[in-house]
């Protein structure tokens, strides 16, 4: 195929890095979204780039915690019964994949993707002069009791990280206090995930990548995306909200949680759940009296990250419709837990921010060409780790699209034919 025009739909981390990589490989790329780059889920996450994220939520120990989760009172997990009832296929598929064989395939695949992405992030941050945003001091899993540290799920996590060679260090209460003096003595144990890094503003990182794309000649268009259609000549037409059509040789759909609705316009049913989450910023302490790295309070169900905007508290999961009204109860509960752990000032913003994590039943994204529709490429379903795995997704997709004989990693676990 000689046509080197590509439209990338979606300007989050996955879409922006895909546009950058295809541009680097010589393609003429147009990046399209309804909002400016990095203003949706890629903006409000915890900013962690961690190999520990290879652990999917639907791991084999999920079965032991399922009865308590179904009571719908957990700080880290809430769900809408009506959403689950209307999406039983997705829910049963998600729980049904909490099997050892699927778990082993998923962890190996995600580890490959995270390692590739971390290297690509470092390259890109250097290219856009944003390495100052990167912290290399890891992050912490905090446990309020020794029993929680020894729980089956926590043990499985440590065993899995050790199997993949991820550097961790168990800390007692005194060692944790030495590492993070600002924390109150409510945690009996901690696990320091040393083999990870984080950034101080995920949205600013996405914007820096997008600015580099435009500076290198890429086209950025802000418009409502209605649908796309085949021109019948191996090309694709993208139709915007005003009915205007633009034609491209190839198209990449990287619309995150909105990929499901967009694909439905093509008659394609995507089994996707929406793990919604909230965040809020609080005034940080002084330089010598503030968090040095992100923390995950396993009982409190939140992540607290030092950000450019202040301390960012990110909640766990609210399983619900993509665009259902916000429910701030989860933020209120986790904020109360966080105030037990360290001093938080007043909330710094209004209204509340919410992001949507698009999750497929096996907790792996699709990175592949659409079966039976040549030239239509898919890159969505990254659940909680789209920010950290976007650059690796871009590298793999570009290599596949351009027919590289040597791919940067095994694409099989991310094949579209798993669900399509």
From TrEMBL:
<protein>
    <submittedName>
        <fullName>FAD-dependent oxidoreductase</fullName>
        <ecNumber>1.-.-.-</ecNumber>
    </submittedName>
</protein>
<dbReference type="InterPro" id="IPR036188">
    <property type="entry name" value="FAD/NAD-bd_sf"/>
</dbReference>
<keyword id="KW-0560">Oxidoreductase</keyword>
<feature type="domain" description="FAD dependent oxidoreductase">
    <location>
        <begin position="6"/>
        <end position="400"/>
    </location>
</feature>
<dbReference type="Pfam" id="PF01266">
    <property type="entry name" value="DAO"/>
</dbReference>
<dbReference type="InterPro" id="IPR006076">
    <property type="entry name" value="FAD-dep_OxRdtase"/>
</dbReference>
<dbReference type="GO" id="GO:0016491">
    <property type="term" value="F:oxidoreductase activity"/>
</dbReference>
């Amino acid at each position: 195929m000689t046509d080197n025009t590509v439209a990338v739909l979606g300007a989050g981390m996955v879409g922006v890095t895909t546009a950058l990589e295809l541009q680097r490989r010589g393609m003429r790329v147009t990046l399209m979204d309804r909002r400016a780059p990095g203003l949706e889920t890629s903006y409000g996450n915890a900013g962690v780039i961690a190999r520990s994220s290879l652990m999917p939520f639907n791991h084999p120990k999920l079965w032991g915690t399922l009865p308590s989760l179904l009571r719908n009172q957990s700080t880290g997990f809430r769900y809408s019964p009506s959403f689950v009832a209307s999406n039983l296929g997705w829910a049963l598929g998600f729980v049904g994949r909490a099997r050892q064989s699927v778990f082993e395939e998923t962890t190996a695949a995600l580890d490959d993707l995270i390692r590739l992405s971390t290297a690509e992030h470092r390259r890109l941050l250097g290219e856009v002069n944003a390495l100052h945003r990167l912290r290399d001091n890891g992050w912490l899993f905090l446990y309020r009791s020794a029993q929680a540290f020894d729980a089956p799920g926590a043990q499985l996590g440590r065993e899995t990280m050790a199997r993949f060679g991820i550097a961790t260090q168990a800390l007692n209460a005194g060692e944790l206090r030495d590492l993070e003096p600002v924390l109150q003595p409510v945690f009996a144990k901690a696990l320091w995930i040393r083999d990870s890094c984080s950034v101080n503003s995920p949205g600013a990182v996405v914007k820096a990548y997008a600015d580099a794309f435009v500076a290198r000649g890429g086209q950025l268009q802000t418009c409502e995306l209605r649908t796309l259609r085949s021109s019948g000549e191996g090309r694709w037409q993208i139709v915007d909200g005003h009915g205007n059509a633009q034609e491209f040789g190839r198209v990449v759909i990287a619309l995150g949680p909105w990929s499901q609705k967009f694909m439905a316009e093509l008659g394609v049913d995507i089994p996707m759940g929406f793990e919604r989450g909230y965040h809020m910023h609080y005034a940080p302490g002084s330089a010598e009296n503030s968090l040095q790295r992100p923390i995950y309070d396993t009982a409190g169900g939140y992540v607290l990250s030092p950000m450019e905007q202040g301390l960012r508290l990110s909640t766990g999961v609210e399983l619900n419709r993509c665009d259902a009204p916000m429910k701030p109860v989860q933020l209120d509960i986790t904020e109360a837990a966080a105030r037990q752990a360290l001093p938080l000032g007043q909330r710094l913003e209004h209204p509340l921010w919410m992001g949507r994590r698009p999750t497929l039943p096996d907790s792996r994204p699709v990175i592949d060409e659409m079966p039976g529709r040549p030239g239509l490429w898919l890159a969505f379903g990254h659940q909680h780790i789209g920010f950290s795995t976007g650059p690796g997704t871009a590298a793999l997709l570009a290599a596949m699209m351009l027919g590289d004989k040597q791919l940067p990693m095994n694409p099989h676990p991310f094949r579209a034919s798993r669900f399509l």
